[in-house]
């Protein structure tokens, strides 16, 4: 393995961003402080919270805007089709998507990405970015990256330190040391401070020597693997075995569950950054935010003359400095100040902005009560589209199903329920037993209990149908897949 101190010859350096920089997007968070929009089944990185694009799409396009290589995305295996579809929507079709069988924090995720990249280019520069953060001033990014890449080529583990805009107690801080010789705009790391109290945060802000730890890094693949071998060998051993026993699932890289599960649950900060002798920081003023709370989202969003942010079907009267968002039904807010109101199909959140961080406590209470609203949305996304529940009784439930053009469900059967499909938009080809039936708008088809069936959208517009299920057991695990285009079991 290459030594950390190995330098890249001057002839191989560029005046701008090196051509072998590979963005590595970490997409493993659940974003519980943005509940009820962000949940484990569909967390905040998959939502368009600040623009027409989702946070994941914004993160991926930063690499495209800087003319970098196709990204490596490390994500929860349950989110693989959401990630692939959202990347495809913005024209990124060559990403390597690495599936974590279980979340083990950032050090194992980064180790996996580094090992996969190092198989073909051990000296590639990895740019580690979170899928759920925001950069408000992307025009400054190229210059910052260029400085950081040159330091990374010299064997440094470069962190992006964001210029604080206030005494934030929710972020970790980096103390800037002396400038690095030969690397313009890059400094040694003097100290790390983890989430200080208000008094200390105010003192650090006043000193001007401290930066927010953004969680973004630049380093060579060989450098980070060398340092992980030194400081976190258990991570390297487990991840290496998970890659040796990986499987390819369509276009996904699926890490071996047993091996990866043995990796310690540890962040790259604790595993390497706070222990290495090669830590460096590059100060940057990029308008960065981790979009970690509804209050942060209020701060980042455009406001009306009364300081309000209104997203969706929202009406406000005599209210000030509120964040009101509706993902469905109309939300009317009157005569209040400094509130957060978030409405989804199955949950409503009302909180004072000063207590935005406490939303996580609410989610914990919902989880303790085993409420599904803590984890899943009423709308459930699948590789072929989505379904959402409309109503449910003791022995029946009604769903809306949307199938994207050209997509089809698995060939399947059920032991405990029969189904009745009514097409309300588009055209369906339904396999029922050994027969195929074309079902058009306002037509229906009945699928008896135990009958093998499949649904295909052959058209160029989305297919929407209403499904009526009846039977003694209606949960989603009553599906026996016989054949599936998406390699699901």
Which spans have pLDDT < 50 for at least 5 consecutive residues? 1-15
Please identify which CATH superfamily of the largest domain we are dealing with. Answer: Spore Coat Polysaccharide Biosynthesis Protein SpsA, Chain A
Tally of separate helices: 11
Shape: globular
CATH hierarchy class name of the largest domain: Alpha Beta
Counting structural domains, the number is: 3
How far is the N terminus from the C terminus?
39 Å
CATH architecture grouping of the largest domain: Alpha-Beta Complex
Strand neighbour order, sheet with most strands: 20-21-22-29-24-27
Strand tally is 30
Helix content: 10-25%
Largest sheet: 6 strands, antiparallel
- Mean of residue pLDDT? 93
- What is the SS-derived class? alpha/beta
Kindly estimate the percentage of residues that lie in beta strands according to DSSP.
Answer: 25-35%
């Amino acid at each position: 393995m290459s030594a950390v101190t190995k330098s890249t010859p001057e002839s191989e350096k560029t005046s701008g961003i090196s051509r072998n920089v590979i963005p590595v997007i970490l997409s493993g968070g659940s974003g519980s402080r943005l509940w009820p929009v962000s949940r484990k089944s569909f967390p905040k990185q998959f939502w368009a919270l600040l623009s027409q694009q989702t946070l994941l799409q914004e993160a991926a396009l930063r690499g495209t805007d800087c003319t970098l290589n196709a990204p490596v995305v490390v994500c929860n295996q349950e989110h693989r089709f959401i990630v692939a579809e959202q990347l495809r929507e913005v024209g990124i079709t060559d990403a390597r998507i690495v599936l974590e069988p279980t979340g083990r924090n950032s050090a194992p995720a980064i180790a996996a990405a580094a090992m996969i990249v190092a198989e073909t280019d051990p000296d590639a520069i990895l740019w580690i970015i979170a899928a759920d953060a925001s950069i408000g001033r992307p025009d400054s990014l190229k210059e910052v990256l260029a400085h950081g890449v040159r330091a990374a080529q010299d064997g440094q583990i470069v962190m992006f330190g964001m210029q604080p805009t206030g005494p934030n107690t929710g972020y970790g801080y980096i103390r800037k040391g002396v400038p690095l010789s030969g690397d313009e705009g890059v400094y040694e790391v003097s100290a790390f401070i983890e989430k200080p109290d208000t008094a200390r945060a105010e003192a650090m802000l006043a000193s001007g020597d401290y930066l927010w730890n953004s969680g973004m890094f630049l380093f060579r693949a060989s450098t980070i693997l060398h340092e992980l071998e030194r400081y976190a060998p258990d991570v390297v051993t487990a991840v290496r075995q998970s890659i040796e026993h990986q499987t390819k699932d369509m276009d996904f890289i699926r890490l071996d569950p047993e091996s990866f599960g043995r990796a310690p649950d540890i962040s790259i900060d604790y595993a390497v950054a706070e222990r290495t002798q090669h830590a460096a920081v590059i100060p940057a003023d990029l308008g960065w935010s981790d979009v970690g709370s509804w209050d942060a989202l209020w701060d980042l969003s455009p406001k009306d003359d009364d300081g309000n942010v209104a997203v969706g079907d929202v009406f406000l009267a005599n209210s000030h400095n509120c964040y009101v968002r509706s993902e469905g039904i109309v939300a009317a807010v009157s005569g209040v100040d400094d509130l957060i109101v978030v409405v989804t199909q199955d949950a409503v959140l009302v909180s004072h902005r000063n207590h935005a961080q406490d939303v996580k406590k609410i989610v914990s209470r919902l989880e303790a009560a085993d409420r599904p609203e803590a984890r899943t949305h009423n709308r459930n996304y699948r590789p072929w589209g989505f379904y959402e529940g409309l109503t449910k009784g003791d022995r029946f439930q009604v769903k809306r199903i949307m199938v994207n053009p050209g997509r089809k469900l698995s060939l399947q059967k059920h032991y405990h329920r029969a189904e009745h499909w009514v097409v309300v938009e588009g055209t369906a080809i339904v396999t029922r037993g050994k027969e195929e039936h074309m079902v058009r708008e306002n037509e229906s088809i009945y699928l008896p209990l135990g009958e093998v069936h499949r649904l295909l959208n052959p058209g160029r517009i989305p297919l929407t149908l209403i499904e009526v299920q009846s039977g003694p057991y209606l949960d989603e695990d009553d599906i026996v897949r016989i054949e599936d285009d998406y390699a699901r079991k």
